[in-house]
Design brief:
Helix content: 25-40%
CATH superfamily of the largest domain: Glycogen Phosphorylase B
CATH architecture of the largest domain: 3-Layer(aba) Sandwich
Distance between the termini: 12 Å
CATH class of the largest domain: Alpha Beta
Strand order of the largest sheet: 3-2-1-4-5-6-7
CATH topology of the largest domain: Rossmann fold
Shape: globular
Radius of gyration: 22 Å
Structural class: alpha/beta
Number of domains: 2
Length: 385
Amino acid sequence: MYLVLWRVFMIIAMVCDFLGEENNGTTIFCYNLIEWLTRHGHSVNIICPDKDKSDINSCFIVPQKKHLTSIEKRFANQGLVFAKPKRSVIRKAVLGTDGVLIITPFSLGKYVTKYALEHHIPVMATFQCQADSLIRPIRIGSKDKYKKKIYKQFYEQVYKYCQAIHFPSAFLCRDFEKYIGYTPHYIISSGISSDFSKKVSCHRPVDSNFRIIYIARLSKHKNHKVLINAVNMSKYKNRIQLIFAGDGDYKSSIERDACGLINQPIIRTYSRPELLEVIATCDLYVHAANEETEGIACLEAATCGLVPIINDSPNSAAPAYAIDEKNLFNYNDAADLAEKIDYWLDHPKERNERSLEYLDFTKKYSLAESMSAMEKMFKLVIYKQ
């Protein structure tokens, strides 16, 4: 029998190539984890290139990287920035910590991984860089080869040396291990904030429209077009109001695709309180993304009582959230999506029953459950129990 002795408090160095604002899943995950750990008495040293955070004692600022690798350039095209390692800063941030968490497997993460190993500090990482977003322009026959190359590079730079790797979904874990082999993985959702819950009453618009919301970045791979086409095929097309909650550089293209709709979609960003109010006025949620590392927005909408209809994409984690086939539509099949929309709008009683099922289904994805599991992962690695 082994006696488990865990020190109450830990000091974790979190390595973030790009932290920035809370407008993407990875950044939101980082802020949630930092908040959870500090609230539970732990310390987090954040290594990042965000100059606006230089007045925060726990932030150690490194320069932004100017000369990028080919893979980094592909991510940079999606609006991301990268950090340049600076040994003096990394020494101050890492020495004396109990463990290191690498958020992304690029130059900064690679350098800190090597530095931590030299000083016998446990290294952990989170994996949220799906290769599919980098290889979209590549012809189909070559995709597997390039995907393996990208994942192999990530592995050799960081993940090979990790004692624990966090994946936000089983799908993403399988995708990585298909090319790399088994890893010391922990599958832990990013978690649903307690802000998301079903509202008993709300102020619905006075019209008789059905309101369908999709929460996603306005980009091509989020695939708003299939939902637009489905609405045009629906028998309720005169009464459907689409709401696209998000921002991105694909807005004008979405507006062009939607010009034939009887009711033009509402396309805008919302603060969290505004989004919660809007969700409460809606009848259905559609998750149309072709690629998704987790798809937490789908779970958040379901936690608010909306029944989701999810694109059954082979490159997405979201299909795992379908309770049965009525919550899935065939991959990129607008006609099948139209049928599913019509079914759920035709059956309000069954829709309400399914909504209640989802309230129970999503409990295991709560933010508290997820962050507690991350904290436990740190302790298991650091104290080797």
